[in-house]
Amino acid sequence: MESRSVNSTYFQASFITSAAKLSQSPEDTGYEIAFAGRSNAGKSSAINTLCQQTALARTSRTPGRTQLLNFFRIDDQRRLVDLPGYGYAAVAQDIKADWQGALADYLEKRECLRGVILMMDSRHPLKDYDIQMLEWANHIEIPVHVLLTKVDKLNRKEQAISLERVDAALKEFSLEFSVQLFSSLKRWGVDEAHEKLDQWFEL
């Protein structure tokens, strides 16, 4: 599972802007891949790991910190987007409504969106909000690739069980949905994730 990634395409990623609503986003052209997931599922850490940077996307021990659409430039035509985390109950309801409204607008209206990388904690996958996100993506016909994060906290048997469980669930939704094991801490699964990004970015 160890990664020996030599794909440097993503290492030049740079922050562009943050948007509180869709109208503040960069021009809707080219290709975008969005990163989604429950608060504290490892979204920002995964972006940093895939781009081999330590502080490209802001990470926090406090769930619910990412409340904006954060855009990162790969090249003139390609961007990664860190979406607001969902499912954290301690966030004030009006703030939660605002950022989940921005999330909904982005997923439903963004023409350049090519796919969603969905983060799930491998120890607790397929929570209610995860299922809702899969149903939503299936409805709007956007492909999803699941990163089962924090797999370094599981033994090999537990990893296999988690992977099999999520893979079976995804097959119930769409053939466009896929899943892999991933660890930002150990840099496991980076090559496989890069291959999916390459596919969607048409690199």
Structure description:
The chain has helices at residues 43-50, 93-109, 128-139, 156-171, 190-201; strands at 14-19, 31-37, 69-75, 78-82, 113-121, 144-149, 177-181. By secondary structure, it is α/β, with parallel strands linked by helices. It has one domain: P-loop containing nucleotide triphosphate hydrolases (Rossmann fold, 3-Layer(aba) Sandwich), CATH 3.40.50.300. It has a seven-stranded mixed beta sheet, sandwiched between helices. The two termini are 24 Å apart. Residues 1-5, 60-65 and 88-92 have low confidence and may be disordered.
Short description:
The protein is of the alpha/beta class. It contains 5 helices and 7 strands. The protein has a single domain (9-201), classed as 3-Layer(aba) Sandwich (Rossmann fold), CATH 3.40.50.
Overall residue-averaged pLDDT value: 87
Uncertain stretches:
1-5, 60-65, 88-92
Q: Going across the biggest sheet, name each strand in turn.
A: 1-3-4-2-5-6-7
Beta-strand residue fraction: 15-25%
The rounded Rg comes to: 16 Å
- The global form is globular
CATH class: Alpha Beta
**Ends apart, CA distance between termini:** 24 Å
Strands, count: 7
Tell me the CATH architecture. Answer: 3-Layer(aba) Sandwich
Main sheet: strands, sense, barrel: 7 strands, mixed
The string of secondary-structure elements, in order, is EEHEEHEHEHEH
CATH superfamily membership: P-loop containing nucleotide triphosphate hydrolases
Helix content: 25-40%
- How many domains, as an integer? 1
Q: Count the helices. How many? A: 5
Structural class: alpha/beta
